[in-house]
Design a protein that fits this description.
By secondary structure, this protein is mainly α. Helices cover 72% and strands 0% of the residues. The chain has 8 helices and no strands. Helix 5 crosses helix 6, helix 6 packs antiparallel against helix 7 and helix 6 runs parallel beside helix 8. The protein is globular. The two termini are 29 Å apart.
Length: 149
């Protein structure tokens, strides 16, 4: 499994956190199992390969980070979502931006451009072209205004 696949799985799990009452650790423990991946692989090729320990750690770090920093990340999204009411932003788009912003703020080993590019590529699979442009614009503005890079 490559990092962009692990990132996309982290986005799926972050999205799922938006509408579950399960604690983040319980969700991760349930979803990051060979059995769960085998069941999901029938519906989505993304789950064909179970993550190894390093990939699972990366997914866990992202999903935990998004859960722990959700109010902060949502604040940034709302701040840069010019002309959009936060409640109107699709949950998948929010999950994509939260993961990218978490990487940008808290994972200095990942280049900001890589986080943005991967977010945009993943968004193309799930969102309308208008929403993809919206995500790209928010993340670009966020990096320019909130980071020293």
């Amino acid at each position: 499994m490559v990092r962009n696949t692990a990132r996309e799985i982290a986005i799926h799990l972050s999205y799922e956190l938006s509408f579950t009452d399960k604690p983040v650790e319980e969700l991760l423990d349930e979803r990051l199992t060979p059995e769960s991946f085998a069941a999901l692989a029938e519906e989505d090729p993304l789950y064909q390969e179970t993550p190894n320990a390093k990939q699972a750690d990366y997914i866990r770090r992202l999903v935990r980070g998004v859960a722990d920093h959700a109010p902060e990340l949502d604040g940034y999204i709302a701040k840069y979502a010019k002309g959009w009411n936060f409640a109107r932003i699709p949950l998948v788009a929010s999950a994509i931006m939260r993961v990218a912003m978490y990487e940008i703020l808290y994972m200095p080993d990942i280049p900001h451009g890589a986080s943005i590019n991967e977010a945009v590529e993943i968004a193309k699979k799930y969102e309308t072209p208008e929403t993809v442009k919206f995500i790209n614009g928010i993340l670009g503005t966020f990096v320019r205004r909130e980071t020293a890079e």
